[in-house]
Amino acid sequence: MSIIEIKNLKFSYDKQVVLEDINLTVEDKDFLAIIGPNGGGKSTLIKAILGINQIKQGTINILGHQPSLNLSKIGYVPQNTNINTNFPIKVIEVVMMGHIRDKHEENKSKNFLHKYFKIGYNEFEKSCAISALKQVGMEEYAEKKIGSLSGGQRQRVMIARALCSHPSILILDEPTASIDVSWQKQIYDLLKELNKTITIIVVSHDISVILSYASKVAHINKIITYHDISHKENHIQANQNDHFCEVEMLQMFGESTQKGTCSSDEEVCSC
User: Fold this and answer.
1) CB within 8 A of 267, min separation 6: which ones?
2) How far apart are CA 158 and CA 166, in angstroms?
3) N or C terminus of the chain with fewer C-beta within 10 Å?
4) Residue 131 pLDDT more than 90?
């Protein structure tokens, strides 16, 4: 079943074309990695899927509807979560912010202040937050201050916040960019487990890691190059620096590309 359908998408900032002739189908329970150079249009595409960028040419459908009608089906974890580690907020309170309220829940609330003045959180929201924290292995930290956690732990909390809306799609922008190596594999192992029930879309430069988890890869550099790697044998080896660049990967998948340079995180490799 198609979760996201993008057809003939073109997007420009003023007269500068950023995306051109983008066609992409994301199926149920895909693990899609979106890669490409800085400025290639990755973030622009994600913002279009989220309904932030209003498109004028082409179409995007989320579960058969325009993005604005199905935003509740998407959980989003941005690269920069802008957490003030000095702000005295608890983990469970951060996660509850991701919950999407409806009138039925509010009318059933036993919390007087919440029901009549919309102050605080109701019992269902707290239960949802605890459940989401369980999913990411952070339940025991529910009452801890968010600022007391490590970078990897905070990222798990941000994923839990996104899960609190019960999304069908989870989109993450560079989920391990600011996390030390010891936590990176744990985050991707978590995403692999979540992928059993929801569709995962990850924007990342970390090619060597992504190849171990993704089932589909989309390379965005104004245009799109798409690969299904779900049936490929696990025989791909990193280069002598234990690193893949995007050009090398595209060559492995049979694309005709010119040699050049590409960036991964803050490194630049020559291909």
Assistant:
1) 243
2) 14
3) N
4) yes
Q: What angle do CA 208, 211, 213 make, to 5 degrees?
A: 120
CB 195 within 8 A of CB 29: yes
Phi first, then psi: what are they for 12, rounded to 5°? Answer: -135, 145
From first CA to last CA, the distance across the chain in angstroms is 37
* pLDDT for residue 259: 38
pTM, two decimal places: 0.81
Mean pLDDT rounded to a whole number for the chain: 80
SS3 208: helix
The alpha carbons of the chain give a radius of gyration, in whole angstroms, of 20
pLDDT at 111 over 60: no
Strands (E), 89-232: 169-173, 199-203, 216-221, 223-228
Going by DSSP bridges, is the β-strand pair 169-173/16-27 parallel, antiparallel, or unpaired?
unpaired
Which token pair is 86?
């000095």
Q: Under a CB-based contact definition with an 8 Å cutoff, are residues 123 and 111 in contact?
A: yes
Would you state the structure tokens that stand for residue 119, as one six-digit string?
Answer: 């102050």
- Segment 214-231 shows an average pLDDT of 90
Residue where the block lists tokens 């073109």: 10
| DSSP track, 27-68 | ETT-EEEEE--TTSSHHHHHHHHTTSS--SEEEEEETTB-GG
**Residue 233 pLDDT grade (very low, low, confident, very high; cuts 50, 70, 90):** low
* pLDDT at residue 234, as a whole number: 47
